[in-house]
Amino acid sequence: MTTLTKRRDAALRAMRDHDISQRRACRLVGVDPKTVRRERPPDCTEIRKEMQDIAAKRRRFGYRRIGVLLERKGMTMNHKKLYRVYREEGLSVKRRRGRKRARGTRVPMPVAAYPNARWSLDFVSDSFGASRKFRMLAVIDDCTRECLCLIADTSLSGARVARELSALIRLYGKPGCIVSDNGTEFTSRAILKWADENEVPWHYIDPGKPQQNAFIESFNGSLRDELLNEEIFDSLDDARRKLALWRYDYNTVRPHSSLGNQTPLQARRALEQFEDSAPGALASDAEAEYPDSTCRTLIMNEGPAGGRSTSVLILRSIFSFAKSTRSHVS
User: Fold this and answer.
1) Which one of 24, 167, 197, 316 has the fewest CB atoms closer than 10 angstroms to its CB?
2) Measured between alpha carbons, how far is 321 from 88 in angstroms, rounded to an integer?
3) Which of 195, 205, 198, 169 is nearest to 278 (CA)?
4) What's the pTM?
5) Do the beta carbons of residue 26 and residue 57 sit within 8 Å?
């Protein structure tokens, strides 16, 4: 404790927490009792407010440049007092450390109160065959907990993520916000350009704090516990098939305690009865475009090179599979 302010605060805390006299607290801390008794009223209220407004707009300006801008507005003071007020307001410029990161939107993250209010994205990795690595892109709706897509491939770039998101918007409508970490794919130029063109706010969580994206982290834990740790994938096609079946079960059969033991599909339908939350989405009850299962499988394996989005093809195959199953049962 080197400053009088800190010593004064320490003496006041000692008097409050340990029920000791003012004289004894001042002697222990090493501060004059007059300093503890004196309560300095806040000074320069208008200058403090103006200083905060300037620092909010110009995040990398120190007290000297802020003082120059204050002088232009007719607010002049001694440089020592300017520095004291600057420090008391906690406006010191933080040193940049690490790599350059995308800031995303500065608007607070919206509450996931209805479908498509907020989507969460993340990557999960696993292996197939002789320890061949592959990655999975998971996208969920934070309100209904519905897994919107689960894309598996050996390489998933920012451009590929942008294509998959465009396909999801055609199916479900535009989200109110997208939340992700600061991974290189999510901070790439392709994603920044896509978010700007589609006018979708993108919120990046703070580095090293995955709890800020808790919904997708919980989904990743369920995916790894219920599928990835239980299955051995022979090939990438085998992994895609098992992921599609697990995603169908996750969205339509598996009960979710956070939804009152409903499925995500039931929760979405119940919420959409009161409000049309996905005006730009495609109708999901349409006839399947590929009635032949062999043709459908070949096109799914074709990947992005065939011009089709993997998420759309997998979704169509699941709808047709469920429809054929109901017809056989009936």
Assistant:
1) 197
2) 65
3) 169
4) 0.55
5) no
Rounded Cα distance, 196 and 191, in Å: 8
Q: What is the mean pLDDT of the chain?
A: 80
More reliable by pLDDT, 121 or 19: 121
Cα-Cα-Cα-Cα torsion 91, 96, 100, 105, nearest 10 degrees, comes to: -10
Give the pair of three-digit tokens for residue 136. 């999975």
The helix/strand/coil state of 135 is strand
Q: Which amino acid is at 248?
A: Y
Q: Which amino acid is at 278?
A: A
Supply 302's token pair: 């074709």
Contacts (Cβ under 8 Å, ≥6 apart) of 139: 119, 120, 121, 147, 148, 149, 150, 164, 165, 168
Query: Within 10 A of 168 (CB to CB), how many other CB atoms are there?
Result: 22
Which region, left, alpha or beta, applies to residue 235 given φ > 0 means left and ψ of -120 to 50 means alpha?
beta
Picking from 215, 89, 82, the residue whose alpha carbon sits closest to that of residue 147 is 215
d(CA 24, CA 118): 56
Residue type (1 letter), 195:
A
- Which pLDDT tens digit goes with each residue over 198-210? 999 999 888 888 8
**Six-digit token string for 65:** 């440049």
Structure tokens at 255: 């009960």
Indicate the pairing of strand 132-141 with strand 178-180. unpaired
Distance CA 324, CA 133 (A): 34
